[in-house]
Prior knowledge:
The complex is a heterodimer.
Chain A: H1 31-50, E1 62-67, H2 73-84, E2 88-93, H3 105-114, E3 119-124, H4 129-134, E4 141-146, H5 152-166, E5 173-177, H6 184-195, E6 199-203, E7 219-221, H7 224-228, E8 233-236, H8 252-259, H9 263-266, E9 274-276, H10 289-292, H11 299-317, H12 319-322
Parallel strand pairs in A: 1-2, 1-3, 3-4, 5-6, 5-8, 6-7, 8-9
Helix pairs in contact in A: 1-5, 1-11, 2-11, 5-6, 5-11
Chain B: E1 2-12, E2 16-25, E3 28-33, E4 42-45, E5 50-53, E6 55-60, H1 65-71, E7 73-78, H2 89-98, E8 104-110, H3 123-128, E9 133-135, H4 144-157, E10 160-163, H5 168-171, E11 176-177, H6 180-185, E12 189-190, H7 193-209, E13 212-215, H8 221-233, E14 237-241, H9 243-247, H10 269-280, E15 286-287, H11 296-299, H12 316-325, H13 331-345, E16 361-371, E17 390-400, E18 403-405
Parallel strand pairs in B: 1-4, 1-5, 6-7, 7-8, 8-9, 9-10, 10-13, 11-12, 13-14, 14-15
Antiparallel strand pairs in B: 1-2, 2-3, 5-16, 16-17, 17-18
Amino acid sequence: MQRSDHRPATLIEGGxxxxxxxxxxxxxxxxxxxxxxxxxxxxxxxxxxTHATPxxxxxxxxxxxxxxxxxxxxxxxFEIAGKRLGADVVxxxxxxxxxxxxxxxxxxxxxxxxxxxxxxxxxxxxxxAVRLIADKVDCPVLNAGDGRHEHPTQAxxxxxxxxxxxxxIAGQRVVICGDVLHSRVARSNILxxxxxxxxxxxxxxxxxxxxxxxxxxxxxxxxxxAALEGADVVMMLRLQxxxxxxxxxxxxxxxxxxxxxxxxxxxxxxxxxxxxHPGPMNRGVEIDSAxxxxxxxxxxxxxxxxxxxxxxxxDVLTRRSRGVEGWA
Amino acid sequence: xxxxxxxxxxxxPVGGVTKGNLIVRDxxxxxxxxxxxxxxxxxxxxxxxxxxxxxxxxxxxxxxxxAFRAGGIVRVGLMPDQSPVLDDxxxxxxxxxxxxxxxxxxxxxxxTQGLAGTxxxxxxxxxxxxARAVGTGKRWIADTGVMHRVLAYAxxxxxxxxxxxxxxxxxxxxxxxxxxxxxxxxxxxxxxIAEALAIARDLMLAEETGARLHVRQVTTAAxxxxxxxxxxxxxxxxxxxxxxxxxxSDIAVSDFRSFAHLSPPLRSESDRQAALAAVADGTIDVxxxxxxxxxxxxxxxxxxxxxxxxxxxxxxxxxxxxxxxDGHATLDRLFALLARNPAxxxxxxxxxxxxxxxxxxxxxxxxxxxxxxxxxxxxxxxxTPFDGLPVQGKVLRVWKGGRExx
Lengths: 328, 406
């Protein structure tokens, strides 16, 4: 796949460790570039916990969060990340926007661009929409989820969580279970985790499994119990309400029976296995409360890592425009 | 008035490829080959370039005169998916007349009222108004009972039923073929067998009713196998394909290129290879452009939100000539695919260089190299999935009924 922003590092002035203008996906990132973003995020984790001297390195920069699809957690996380770094954060919600008045996506992008944003964070319901906008604007664009395609910051925060809790990602047996077909979280995680040499298993009923998923370097399972054998990390995906009642699975009751993560099931995984969920959870459907609130659950830690990862991405992507030494 | 095209390579689906002259008198071919040139004839020296029958493009979505002229297309079969739908004699008659004399438009009338797939349309009335076939448009008739009656009724009228072969239950909401590319991009996708399922049903109904069936685009190995077997049994079935499905696979969709958003969608590489084999073994009867120009308001969108279709009229000939270059078809067979066979589906006695036929002619330079550039198209939009591709074969002059189209 050819990419406008994916040139050999030697052709880029400065910023050789991360020679990308945008973050539209994990696809196209080299393993060392993913590791670099994780290292950068790591430095923010401590800073966020200690509330040490505030670092306002993005002061004076305008960050626009253009969310064409409803979101609470991701939007909040990006807003907090931007504000912690001192950026002027503006949120654009689809419900209030001219998108409802029939304006095309490109026109909206041009409008945001004309307002001289310094970084734009985009969520959209169509796969590929973020790439489309990234090609039209002058500032860095961060993908906060596009359709079923990618959600790179989620994959980065998951990778950071695994790395901190398990010591490393390479060699870990990670099971991703749930609605893989419609999940951008699954796609980005598959790309990031396989790039970092984890052993990735995906598990879903065949109605929720995309075709040829094995070509992405993962092992597909339909039997959750078999997939869980010896797992080091169990990553559950959210099952959307509208897909529960007969369309893709017969009922929530039946889904829980076959794919719900219970304490009994978790016993099949490694004794110290980590439990993860991108949220929001359907307690009692894909995950039982006893598991979600267990000591092995990293679910709230994922949220914490989310802010750190997004701070790192905002910082790294704006380094060139801010003229940071070695990047500009 | 006599027109003499001299020193030409004549590519005729019936007469083969020969060198010589072609004489036209009063809009009709009167002699071909090494024949004397009448003294009073207006003579055009073709300098060895190729004279072929003008292209008959079966199943275009839009009337786009400039693009058809540039592509050497003299007749088109117009899809019923117009606004309003071609299911009314007044609308059909208007469509049939507006192109003349330069471009002859042969409407494919809607087989069901409003293309809704529920009630039979007035097929005979539309035929009397100028329609040459009936069709399901870009849709599939889901109700097997309705499709059975459409085919039975069309058989009585001895016209072809032109179908779109995708099982709508499987393809509902899909914009790509299920496979690695669609999975990586996160695009809603349907399995390729959606095509074979639709073809299998319609073939059985055609066999049962004795109707003439033309499957406008067949694009998968399983689809070709069904058509091949049906032809062997003597079923009156023909099928077509576009250059896109012969030269591109679903990898062209990577990076969300909406110009490669087609209907049916691009297929896997193995299906593409099967399509080339189906050209070579005669399973495919027609190559069409499926010309469907779409502007930025319909294409500069996220892939799944964009409208399917490509502007194909101007690139039809050079992309088809690649089949000759690569040995999948001979030049005379190519013009059976581009002219004689589509004409036959529409019940037209044209598409060859035989004596006595209307002089619908195309002069082209089979070797002239050029680069496909959407922005330089004569078409009303530039949505080609082949942008930037170097090709060979340039249309030089076009005649309709002996009259040059400029």
